[in-house]
């Protein structure tokens, strides 16, 4: 059987309750168009997760994710949200190490790894984001940067990647309209898979590796045609339910 595809939407700090309701209504009305070989995940901001979990019950195949999680289980950590809380409100997935968190919240590889492990401990599927800056790409550091980000987790043993996903998101392609070419993305996806295979060949083969960075309905098909691209992490375009559905359908 063909490997399942995953399309995850990251709303970042966008949206509203009304927008969420509209999005889910559209998806519910068009759920017959959602192919069973494609998993769709939506990651709205924290305050909407609880309502989203209820709304999603009407949409076959739409799953809930969060955009971040605390590395701590509980305690005096004002403003943070524990993995168990995400799980309690119905989240199944959580994005960790998004480049915007690495950049604006100064999250380093160590903290990202701790968040990833906390997510797993609560039964969530973490989506680990890796990716290089434009300067790093121009200095031919792409491979060492993404491998370094992966190694921060592999240091905890390859088993941490059971029930996890990786998203390759070149920072220069995020929100810029500049997508990596399918070949550029494929090269990094292949490298990530080969690196995992050095530890566990079976896991490497089954590991969903998503591409993120200005994915739209118009460029999705070319990316999904690549052998190591298993889906997409979609930012801006995921705010439109029509576009999100079109991207999901491009994955088949
Ligand atoms: P974008 O964002 O699709 O708006 O480029 C992707 C992401 O940051 O996950």
Report what the structure shows.
There is one protein chain. Helix content is 41%, strand content 15%. It is of the alpha/beta class. The chain has a single domain, classed as TIM Barrel (Alpha-Beta Barrel). α7 packs parallel to α8 (182-197). The two termini are 13 Å apart. Bound molecules: 2-phosphoglycolic acid.
How are the elements arranged and paired?
Elements: E1 5-10, H1 17-29, E2 38-43, H2 49-56, E3 62-66, H3 83-88, E4 93-96, H4 99-104, H5 109-121, E5 125-130, H6 134-138, H7 142-154, E6 165-168, H8 182-197, H9 201-206, E7 209-212, H10 217-224, E8 231-234, H11 241-250
Parallel strand pairs: 1-2, 1-8, 2-3, 3-4, 4-5, 5-6, 6-7, 7-8
2-phosphoglycolic acid is lined by residues 10, 169, 174-175, 212-215, 233-237.
